Amino acid sequence: MNKGYLLLVLHSHLPYIRPPEYDYFLEENWLYEAIVESYLPLLDVFNGL
Fold first, then answer.
1. How far apart are CA 19 and CA 22, in angstroms?
2. Contacts with 25 (C-beta within 8 Å, 6 or more apart), sequence order
3. pTM, two decimal places
4. How far apart are CA 22 and CA 10, in angstroms?
5. From residue 25, how far is each of 17, 18, 45 by CA, in Å?
6. Contact assessment for residue 31 and residue 17, using Cβ atoms and an 8 Å cutoff
7. What is the spatial distance between Cα 37 and Cα 43, in angstroms, rounded to a whole number?
């Protein structure tokens, strides 16, 4: 039997993160939200495999 392969491709579009010359900017919050709601749960699932 031939060996199969699995390739997981994660694609994400995040807005440009501006340099910290401003005290508050929305794009940084979007980045943190994507990390907490998408990437961390995926890492938990991968660690459980």
1. 8
2. 18
3. 0.50
4. 30
5. 9, 8, 31
6. yes
7. 11
Per-residue tokens: 28: 């940084």
Each of the 49 residues of the chain gets a pLDDT tens digit; together they read: 788 988 877 766 666 666 667 777 777 788 788 888 888 888 899 899 8
How wide is the angle at C-alpha 42 spanned by C-alphas 8 and 15, nearest 5°?
A: 85
Which amino acid does the sequence have at 18?
Answer: R
Q: Which amino acid is at 32?
A: Y
Give the tokens for residue 5: 């392969």
Residues 6 or more apart in contact with residue 3 via CB below 8 angstroms:
none
The DSSP code sequence of 8-20 is: -------PPPPPT
